[in-house]
Amino acid sequence: MEYKDTLLMPKTEFPMRGNLPNNEPKMQEKWDEENIYQKVQERTAGRPFFVLHDGPPYANGDLHMGHALNKVLKDIIVRYKSMSGFHAPYVPGWDTHGLPIEQALVNKGVDRKKMSVAEFRKMCEDYAYEQINNQRTQFKRLGVRGDWENPYITLKPEFESRQIQVFGEMAKKGYIYKGLKPVYWSPSSESALAEAEIEYKDKKSPSIYVSFPVRDGKGVLAEDVKFLIWTTTPWTIPANLGISVHPAFTYAVVNVNGEKLVVAKELVEFLAKELEWENYSIEQELPGADLDRIVAKHPFYDRDSLIMLGEHVTADAGTGCVHTAPGHGEDDFYVSKSYGIDALSPINDRGVMTEEAPYFAGMFYEDANKAVTEKLEEVGALKKLSFITHSYPHDWRTKKPVIFRATAQWFASIELFRSDLLEAIRNTKFTPSWGETRLFNMVRDRGDWCISRQRVWGVPIPVFYAENGDAILTDETISHVAKLFREYGSNVWFERTAKELLPEGFTHEGSPNGEFTKEMDIMDVWFDSGTTHQGVLEERDDLVYPADLYLEGSDQYRGWFNSSLTTSVAINGIAPYKGLLSHGFTLDKDGRKMSKSLGNVIVPAKVINQLGADIVRLWVSSVDYTADVRVSDSNFKQVSEVYRKIRNTIRFLHGNVADFDPSADRVSFEEMRPVDQYVYVKLQDLIKEVRTAYDHYEFAGVYHAVNNFCTGVLSSFYLDIAKDVVYIEGVNHPHRRAMQTVMYDTLITLVKLITPILPHTADEMWNYLNVKEADSVQLTDMPEADEKGEVADKLRERFDHLMAIRDDVLKALEEARNAKVIGKSLEAKVTVVLPEDQQGLLQASDIDFAQFFIVSTFEESKNTELPNALKLDRATVLVEPAEGEKCERCWTISTTVGEDTTHPALCARCASVVKENYA
Predict the structure, then answer these.
(1) Is the pTM above the cut of 0.90?
(2) How far is CA 10 from CA 210, 660, 719, 722, 726, in A?
(3) Where's the Methionyl/Valyl/Leucyl/Isoleucyl-tRNA synthetase anticodon-binding domain (predicted)?
(4) pLDDT more than 70, % of the chain
C-alpha cells in the first residue's frame, strides 16, 4: 500500500496563478452575454435605493490613473451596496460639450470657416461619441459594472431639454440676468470663464510704479503733487479711469528730491527702500476720506483719473493708491460704478488692444506691457520697473494666462439664494469631514456665476431679442425651446431662424414688425454637468433624486459639487446629494503631478495588460484615497504579493473542502472543538470589521483586515494546524468535518467579502464552488456576522492567551532550528513552563496542544529551572528532539510507530485510520 494515497490531500482545479490579463476579458465577455448588470437590478428590485450618481468625465482622450481611482472607488461602493440590502443602479455618464472637442477638431485640420455652425457641431458630436466608445471600453476593462449600453450623455436631446428647463426655472425666479462687468476672460479660448475653470500657476510679470499728476486738488492738495500707484499689469494703464484710496487710511505727501508723491503713510518706509529714496520728507498728512473726488491726470492721455474711496484698498503691498481700471477688475468695476463711471475695456476677444487704446492698437496685451512701460518712461511717469514671479490665474484647459475683462455676459445670481445654499451644505454628510468647510467657504465667498460662453459647441442660451433689444425669456418661450430640443436636439437652434424657433404666432411689443434675433452664446459646460440631477436623476425611471452620494476628486468642490448644488437649490431648494465623498489626485512616487513632459505617467491600460484589472482595483482599495495618492510600479508589485496571498488562501481552502457537502457534512458550532470555534468567531469578527469599513467607505480597512486574516489567522495558524487533521484523519472524522465546516464558511465568506474589490477573482472562484445560492457571486448578499455573545467573548479571551504563548513557542522552535537541535518542528518535543497564575492553561483536554504548536510531543511543566530552556515574554520553553520513530504517513515522531505489525511504519493513530478506511 502506498500510504501517500491514503492522505486526503487538497484537490482543486482553481489555478494558482490568476493569469488576469488573459482571463479577465473572457469573464467580462461572459458578464456581458449574461447581462449581469440587469440581473443584479432585477434581484435587488424593491429594496431601498442607493444611488451613487456618476460625475461625468469629459469625453476626450484615454484614461489616466485619476480616472481609474475614481471609477473603481465608485464601483466598489455600488457593488457593496447591491450586496448589502440596497437597490444600487449605476448609470455612467459623459460630459460632451466645450472647447477641448472644438480644439481637437481644429488640431485635426478641420476648417470651421468652410462650414456652417450646425455642420461643425455635428462633427463635434461625432467626435464625442468616438471618445465615449473608447473610454467606455477602458472603463469596462477595469471591471466597472454599470448600464454601459444606456449611459447618460450631456449632448442627448432629452438631457439638453431638461437643461433648458432648469435655466428657465432659474430665470423665472429672477436668478438669471445679463450684465456688463469684468469676468475671467481667456484670450487663448476666446471666451469668458467661470471660477471653476481657473487654476493658479506662477507667472513672471512686470512690476511698475507710476505717478499720476494732480489736475484738481480741490483745495486739499497742491497742483504739483502726484499720486503714486503700483501695478503688475502695465497693459491696463490705457484703461485707467481712476485711483482708489482707503477712507480710513492716513495718507502722506512725501517730498522726494523735490517731487511730491501721495502714498499711504504706513507704506512710506517700505517704499523708501523699494524705490531707493535717499532724501525724503513727509510734508503733509491727511485722512483718505479727504482725497475723495480729487482729480488726477492720466499719464499719457488727456483724460481725468478720479480719486475714489474704496474699502478694497489694502496696505499689504503697493502704495495704498490703487490703479483703477473698471473694465479690468471686479473691485475696480464696482467702485467706479458707485461714482457713475462706466467700464472701459480697450481689448478684443483675442487679447489684442483696440483703437480705444491709442499708441497700442493691434498689440497683443502681453506685448503691450513693454510698449506701455516705454511710453510711461518717455513721459516721465515711470518711477521703477522690475519683475516679479507671482501666482496668477490661468485657463485650466489651455494652460494660458487669463485676464479680467468687462463684457456683457449672462450670470446666475448667487447672492439671491446664498443662505439656502449654505443651509443645504449643512444638511449634507461629508467624507472626509473637512469637505464641508471647504465647500461652505467657497459658496460663502463666491461671486455671481458667469454662465455664458462665446463658443459654438454647447447648449445655447435660450434667449431671444426683440427689435428694440429687449431680451425675451418667458415660460412660453422656454417651454417651446425645451420641446424643440427634446425632439431635434440643440442643433435646431443653429439650423433655424429666431422666428422659426419661437412659438407660432408669437408677438412682442418690442418687435412691431415681428422680427426677432436669438442669443448666440452657449452655456458654461459646468451648467451642463451641474444639471444632471434633472437630466439624469429626474429624467430616468431607474434612478431617484436626490442621489445618496456624489463621489469625485477634491477639485470638484469648486466644480461639479458646486455647480450641481447651485442649480438644484435654485430650482428645488435642496442639494442634489445626501452625501459627498472626495478623493485626492494621483501623483508619481516623488509626489509630482504626472505629465508626459516629465515622463512619469503610469497608464492604467498598461498596468492592466501586465498585471490585471483586479490588481489595479486592489491597489485602489489599499490607499488612503481621501488624500493625494502616490503611484509607482513598486506599489503594484507590493499589492500583487497581497493578491497572491489572498488567491492562494482561497485556493487552499477550496482544495480542502473538495469532499465536503455542506448540506450533509456540516458540524454545528456547539459540536466543534474550541480551536475551530475560535477561528469561526474570528471569521465573524472579520465580517463585522469588513462590513463596517465598507459602510464608512474605508476600503483600506477592508484590504488590511482581509490580508491580516488570511496571513495571521489562516496561513500561519489554522490552515497550518489543520493539515494534521484534514489530511490525516478519516474522511468523516468529526474533527475533520468540523474543520471543513469552518473552512467552507471561511471560503464562502472571503469570496463574498472581496467581491466589490476583486470581482473577477471572486467570480472565478465562485464558478468552481458547487453553490446553489446563485450563478454568480454578484447575485448574492454580503455575509451577516453570526454573533455568539458571551461564548465568543470567552473564546477570544482564552485564545488571546494561547496565541501569545504560541508565539513564544514558535520563537523557541526557530532558535532550536538555528542551533541544529531539530530540523522541522514535527521533530520536536516542547515543554512549556508558565507563570504561576497561568499554570494548567495548557493542560486542558479539549485542545490537542501538540497539534496546536505543530510538534510531535508536548507537555506543560511546573519546573521553573529547566536546563537549556529559553525564557521568553510569556513562557519558558524547552525544545528537544522528540522520542520515537517518524511515522511515514503523518510524519510525527512517535513511540507508537511499529506497535501495529500490519503497518509497522505507522504510528498507532495512522494505523487505525488506515485500517478503518483503507483496509
Answers:
(1) no
(2) 87, 12, 12, 12, 9
(3) 676-831
(4) 100
